[in-house]
Amino acid sequence: MTANRQLDIFDNLDLEHAYSCLYSLRLGEAISFFKIALNAPCPDSEQIYNAIDICTYWEPRLQPMDFYSLPDSRKRQKYFSDFLNDFRAYEFLKETKEFQSVLLQFLFNKIYLEEELSKETVETLSDLLMEHKKHQAASQLLKKFVKEKTSEHAFFYRLGQAQWLGDYKTDALKSYVRALLYFPETNFLERIESKNLQNLIHKYGPELTPAYAWLYCKIPFLEIGEDVEPINEKHALALQSYVLLHKAENARWESSPDMIDCRKELMQQNAELYAAYFSFLQKKKR
């Protein structure tokens, strides 16, 4: 809240009520109080008219937000999609940034309650939440989506980004590795905020980065589910190498009699990765 607006509010009780209604999204009431506030001595009429404009624009868009007004899930998804597009296109003035934040949080709260989330809605809303530094909300939304849509592996890149920007870097690294294991597609790599991971991707490629991330970044091994489908032969070989590296390390920890055979299998599959693993073991002996 600016100093000028604080002064206006102290001098104009109706203006105080108007902004209170604005930030609680009671926009019809806000319009009434803003219009009354215009009659006060020396009002900041430009600022008040801007506030009335924003209320007039958003009030009809908020009215169908009640679930009972849109009982059909498909109609709600269409409504949410249109609302998000309007939100992105609308030119919020500097003095209405607080309203913009409240409106976005309200929209997230409503969409998060949906039993089924559309891919397009989650893409748009998660990006908007991150743009406005609502990283925890973005993480919540994306966690829910990937839990419901287990085949949408690319969304783990978004989840990792939201977690990293929200300073949950350990969780972010796990999400990034999960994304690279299941869907090492270069179109999504710009969402990886970790410089260490980016360096590994540049040196070894996205397919093999999960294996080297364990060696050099201490990111724990992740179990690979049966639902993983290699996107090409390079990805298939990288998955095999990751599994063999995990197998070899487990054998070492368990002092298994199969340890030597596991290492030989890894060396035959990927000699460069085996050499890095052997160097890793030699350093641990020092």
- End-to-end span in angstroms? 59 Å
**Based on helices, strands and strand pairing, what is the structural class?**
mainly alpha
How much β-strand is present in the residues? under 5%
The parts where pLDDT drops under 50 for at least 5 residues are: 5-10
Count of individual beta strands: 0
Q: Care to give the gist of this entry?
A:
By secondary structure, the protein is an all-alpha fold. The protein has helices spanning 3-11, 13-23, 27-37, 45-62, 73-89, 97-112, 119-131, 135-148, 155-165, 169-182, 195-204, 209-217, 233-253, 259-269, 271-285.
List keywords for this structure.
mainly alpha; 286 residues; 15 helices
Descriptive overview:
The termini are far apart. This protein is elongated. The chain is mainly alpha-helical and 286 residues long. It has 15 helices and no strands. About 2% of the residues have low confidence.
Helix-strand layout with pairing:
Blueprint: H1 3-11, H2 13-23, H3 27-37, H4 45-62, H5 73-89, H6 97-112, H7 119-131, H8 135-148, H9 155-165, H10 169-182, H11 195-204, H12 209-217, H13 233-253, H14 259-269, H15 271-285
